[in-house]
Amino acid sequence: MAYNVAIMGATGAVGTEFLRILEQRNFPLASLKLLASHRSAGKKLTFAGEELVVEELGGNSFKGIDLVLASAGGEISKKFAPIAVAAGAVVVDNTSAFRMDPDVPLVVPEVNPQDIKTHKGIIANPNCSTIIMNVPVWPLHKAAPVRRIVVSTYQAASGAGAAAMAELEEGARAHLEGRPFEPTVLPHKAAFNVFSHNSAVGEDGYNEEERKMGLETRKIFHAPDIRIAATCVRVPVLRAHSEAINLEFAEPMSEQQVREILADAPGVTIVDDREKSYFPMPLDATGQDDVLVGRIRQDISQDGQIGIEMFVSGDQIRKGAALNAVQIAEML
Questions:
Q1: What's the rounded Cα separation, in Å, for the pair 332 and 327?
Q2: How far apart, in whole angstroms, are the C-alpha atoms of residue 309 and residue 280?
Q3: One domain for residues 102 and 231
Q4: Which residues are known to be catalytic?
Q5: β-bridge partners, 229
Q6: Least crowded by CB within 10 Å, which of 66, 131, 268, 303?
Q7: Are residues 47 and 193 located together in one domain of the fold?
Q8: 3-class secondary structure, 42
Q9: How many CA atoms lie within 13 A of 283 on its CB side?
Q10: 84 shares a domain with 176
Q11: Domain ranges, residue 45
């Protein structure tokens, strides 16, 4: 069976990645419709050797559509996802619009594919940092319950979209050439700099990205009691996020056990060569489907082998967004 698919937000970084992944994975398409804002309507994008014209997103865009892959921003999804569902489509939404809605499943296919069956027309794709953390943590949590996660992220410009990636490149050129440069996409200069994630900071001192990682992980794992503390940071990397993850387990978990579990875990590749000091790096993770995991070691600050440290890198646009959504669609 082949499906009529629409991509909402087709000209963005995630939208164009949808096109690549649908082609690479030979998704069963009867038709493909590209939808974007008025200013992008009329643009041409290539898919499977053919040029497709981008159409303006509107209330009548979803007639005859079976599946919508959405990545056009939260407010756009809030407006148009219900319209698409009413027209008979299933929406896999890559924004934050529906993630914490109790009636909308929040899915990482390697973790909770069974939740897809509970959908009422909309399935939410988690935040990129959440996905990249959850893929390697989940198989460990199944083996021995995780009680606490402390995570620090090193997030690429790609998390803020194609415009932020372009701004990082231009800022780097300006810095090296000694030219003045003021950012307009990100709040601070990204080139040769590190700054706190550019999401709103609440009264508790945590920003939205940090709260998402905790709230979403507890929902995905169906584990409301896991304690999670995150610190999310932007780094001068074009694409692929990295994370330093500290896990506290309810029972002993040895380094060797972690290696054996992750060696067989779906969506994970172990990159951990201590002799050559070669571990997960965003340059290696870029374009990869798997999350790279390394620096696996016992947390020496905890007694009884209940703590594990590791470092991961994952392609934010791919597994952190578009690939995860297409995997959900395949399972549908």
A1: 9
A2: 14
A3: no
A4: 128, 241
A5: 150
A6: 303
A7: no
A8: coil
A9: 3
A10: no
A11: 3-125+321-331
